[in-house]
Specification:
InterPro entries: DUF7144 (IPR055568). This is DUF7144 domain-containing protein. With 141 residues, this protein is mainly α. 65% of the residues lie in helices and 8% in strands. The protein is elongated and about 45 Å long.
Length: 141
């Protein structure tokens, strides 16, 4: 069975695509970050008194509104992570875009749940780096 290596993806003679290296790392981190955002959104929608609200913050949106934003964004990030794991080439660009949007949403979320928001900002930063980094055989091309 002949294989042809292209960047961080390996195409086999059967036509399937297997992702390797940093792409697998990014996909797993996207799925993890997306699921965390889903839980974050559910918690904000279900029970507003779980979170501490700060007065006079620039982003004056209701906690339920933030919950819906994080829920939808978490679902999209998780689905994009699954697409990256399956080797879809369009999913890398979508993944970078969604991770950037998630990073911005979590930055604005800092007053309500700082530890969780900082954790997801770091995860999104690693996802963006891993999806856009050119390392190993990809850098030689």
């Amino acid at each position: 069975m002949a294989t042809h290596t292209t960047g961080m993806q390996r195409t086999t003679a059967g036509g399937g695509t297997a992702v390797t290296g940093w792409t697998v790392f990014a996909a797993i981190m996207m799925i993890f970050g997306g699921i965390m955002s889903i839980f974050e959104g559910i918690a904000a929608i279900a029970q507003d008194d779980v979170f501490v609200t700060t007065r006079n913050f620039t982003f004056q949106w209701s906690l339920t509104g933030w919950g819906w934003l994080h829920l939808v964004l978490g679902i999209l990030v998780t689905l994009a992570g699954l697409a990256v794991l399956k080797g879809a080439t369009w999913a890398r660009v979508v993944g970078i875009t969604l991770a950037g949007l998630s990073m911005l949403a979590n930055f604005a979320w800092l007053p309500w749940y700082p530890f969780w928001a900082i954790t997801l900002i770091i995860v999104d930063g690693f996802v963006i780096w891993a999806l856009s980094a050119r390392t190993g055989s990809d850098a030689a091309a």
